[in-house]
Amino acid sequence: MTVKLLYFAWVREKTGLGEESVDLPGEVKTVADLIGWLKARGPEYEAAFEQSDVIRTALDQTHVSHDAKIAQAREIAFFPPVTGG
Amino acid sequence: MTVKLLYFAWVREKTGLGEESVDLPGEVKTVADLIGWLKARGPEYEAAFEQSDVIRTALDQTHVSHDAKIAQAREIAFFPPVTGG
Amino acid sequence: MIRVQQQDFDIGEEIDRLRAGRTDIGAIVSFTGTVRDTAKGAPVTSMTLEHYPGMTEKELERIEAEANARWPLHASLIVHRTGRMTPGENIVLVVTASASRGAAFEAAEFLMDYLKTDAPFWKKEEGPDGGGWVDARDSDDAARKRWSAQDKAAE
Amino acid sequence: MIRVQQQDFDIGEEIDRLRAGRTDIGAIVSFTGTVRDTAKGAPVTSMTLEHYPGMTEKELERIEAEANARWPLHASLIVHRTGRMTPGENIVLVVTASASRGAAFEAAEFLMDYLKTDAPFWKKEEGPDGGGWVDARDSDDAARKRWSAQDKAAE
Q: ipTM of the assembly?
């Protein structure tokens, strides 16, 4: 399955890219699975997701927790806790 | 003692005047005494101070209760509960 | 700063003046009270605000000083109009500025709650069915009392 | 109504537009968040706001709908800027209009509390000593949680 991954703020700075398209292997079922899979892709991902418990995730632009199933999501975003306002 | 009395809102409309100067007899010591003394001055005062418990009073522009002593106050105002804002 | 005036005020201009040249403010709250076209279900065509010149200014200054003693405000403003107004017109403006939004919000609510119960203004409404002096509301007394309850809780 | 934009906004104009022609409003509350010149004691010379286009608008619309479901608002507005700003500049504007001041105040605070925790914006500060991404604050999470506590208390 091909999904679009988006990275914001320091997650973007650490991965070194704002977005990318990836083919997810079948065993990546949850957000936590995806984070684990990304961390194995290289040191920049390892650094970006090191404190994985503070990373927030949105599936198709809706906040979800790390145990959420990715299912048919097309756009998955990773970012730090928000600080607007 | 001569004091200036001020009336506002429906207290003013009922007494028929916005302000007046009066000479207070010595036995008028508190706000409640003054209200009683005013009510005896005529039917318009009787009407204005009929519901005397809702009438608010200020001595020299400071809110006071009806048991407050008039003492050396020069300006005594009577008005309904305020409704600004 | 406090002002009592007959003429209308411009909310944007008042806020601009209060914050002009300042870079230490993080939060600005404004409250504007306006004339509504109905009161207790009856149409209102105009409203006249009477006040107690002299005492009004003293009370507003006292209320503003009290808010500044309770919250770390960088600036505050109360403007209240008097005279005759029609529905949609501005009556009162309160502006508070602080480093943090909590202080700005609380102080603005406090200023309005105290103004509603302590500042000597009286509203008279007029409509096609007549009119009359507006009654004070218990809810305004209750709104004011919560601030003293907070003091007691904090003791 | 919600808007995300790079350019500055004019508080007075935004309020004027929201209330134009209306005579049923009694209370208008505005909150403006501005860039401060210090953060945790260190000087700030500029701030850059990044956001998640698409999701930002969805979240702001959701938050605004939630406020309108909780309070009888006659009008509401959220405007949030993105990009680079310097101290003193506007970041965010929330305006609420209602018949009564309690609803307008509460809804404005609610909108800000939810925006602070839910809307995907991130601030990066720069100063003479460097800079970095602003950390989320526990106090913002606590501010948001009080609204759910109220729901539970009301059940």
A: 0.95
Answer yes or no: is B15 within a domain: yes
pLDDT of residue D154: 55
> pLDDT, tens digit, for every residue of C137-152?
999 999 999 998 776 5
C35 touches B at CB < 8 Å: no
Chains A and B touch (3+ CB pairs under 8 A): no
Partner C contacted by B25 (CB < 8 A): no
What's the pLDDT band for C154 if we cut at 50, 70, 90? Answer: low
- Answer whether C11 touches D (CB < 8 Å): yes
Q: Could you tell me which CATH class the domain C2-154 is placed in?
A: alpha beta
- What are the chain D neighbours of A63 within 8 Å (beta carbons)? 118
Which DSSP string corresponds to A25-72?
Answer: PTT--BHHHHHHHHHTT-HHHHHHTTTGGG-EEEETTEEE-TT-B-TT
What's phi and psi for D24, nearest 5 deg?
A: -100, -5
Task: Using a CB–CB cutoff of 8 Å, tell me whether D111 touches chain A.
Answer: no
Q: Residue A57 phi/psi, 5° resolution?
A: -135, 145
Closest CB to C30 among D23, D29, D112: D29
C-alpha–C-alpha distance, residues D81 and D91, integer Å: 5
At residue C143, what is the residue type? A
- Inter-chain CB proximity A82 and D118 less than 8 Å: yes
Domain assignment present for B85 = no
pTM beyond cutoff 0.80: yes
Q: Is the dihedral of CA A47, A48, A52, A54 positive or negative?
A: positive
C-alpha D54/C-alpha D65 separation (Å) is: 17
Q: Where are the domains of chain C?
A: 2-154
